[in-house]
Design goal:
Shape: globular
Distance between the termini: 27 Å
Structural class: mainly alpha
Number of strands: 2
Order of helices and strands: HHHHHHHEEH
Radius of gyration: 23 Å
Length: about 240
């Protein structure tokens, strides 16, 4: 990587590391497209698309704005497993030497996170960026400081529905064992996410999603994206147990 200037600091990518490697493994040298654009990553969520494309640009694997494939991505696609590990080792030396230097000095987790914040990421984005680095180092066989620990994803809590837990008024004498009749609508979307403790959360969207107002449709899709992000964070935590 070229030397950074104060006005142009390289921003550490924060896509899940396995998203990058799985993406490269989708292709062979013969099937790798000339450019990587939204049509190639349409099976990913909107957040995953942005994170993956950002990582490919940051690592000089595609041209900014145009998405034209560059040699670094061609090499990664063409390499076998051992070759891929060596390419990731070189990528870490090229882009994360500052983090590797902290590691060699037996730096602390706080030192590492401070360094990542200096490279354009903060908050939950910094957590993801640090996790990417640590997973990449493990994949490449690079031993890190014993004081580095993979950051934990924040716990999400489900929002309580209005009126939940309230007793119904004026229902004495009624048969409360019978649930109220459901409206005659057809479920068009159902999504369940398992929580780290017991149980899970399910959302069900009834009716025709395309017939919703633009505001309602946007809210529902953002809610689904929250489920995707939560599961992605849990997947990162599962990997952290092996670090």
């Amino acid at each position: 990587m070229e030397n950074e200037t104060q006005s142009e600091v390289w921003k550490a990518p924060y896509a899940p590391f396995r998203t990058l490697t799985n993406f490269a493994e989708r292709f062979t040298p013969e099937t790798l497209p000339r450019r990587i654009d939204r049509s190639i990553v349409r099976n990913y969520s909107g957040t995953q698309q942005a994170e993956l494309l950002g990582a490919l640009e940051a690592f000089d694997m595609i041209e900014p704005n145009t998405g034209v494939v560059k040699d670094r991505l061609r090499d990664l696609v063409a390499a076998d497993t051992d070759g891929k590990r060596e390419l990731i080792r070189q990528l870490l030396r090229d882009y994360y030497q500052w983090a590797l230097d902290i590691s060699k000095a037996n730096g602390t987790q706080s030192e590492l996170e401070e360094a990542f914040r200096e490279h354009g990421v903060g908050g939950s984005t910094a957590r993801k960026a640090v996790t990417f680095f640590m997973h990449a180092a493990k994949y490449a066989g690079i031993e890190l400081s014993p004081h580095f620990t993979a950051p934990r994803a924040p716990r999400r809590t489900a929002a309580r529905r209005n009126g939940a837990g309230k007793t119904n008024q004026g229902t004495q004498g009624q048969n409360n064992d019978q649930p109220p009749p459901k409206p005659p609508t057809t479920a068009t979307l159902e999504r369940t996410v398992s929580l780290t403790g017991n149980g899970g959360v399910t959302i069900t969207v009834t009716g025709n999603l395309l017939a919703f107002s633009a505001e309602d449709r946007k809210w529902v899709l953002e809610l689904v994206q929250m489920f995707d992000d939560y599961e992605e964070a849990l997947g990162e935590e599962d990997d952290e147990d092996d670090l």
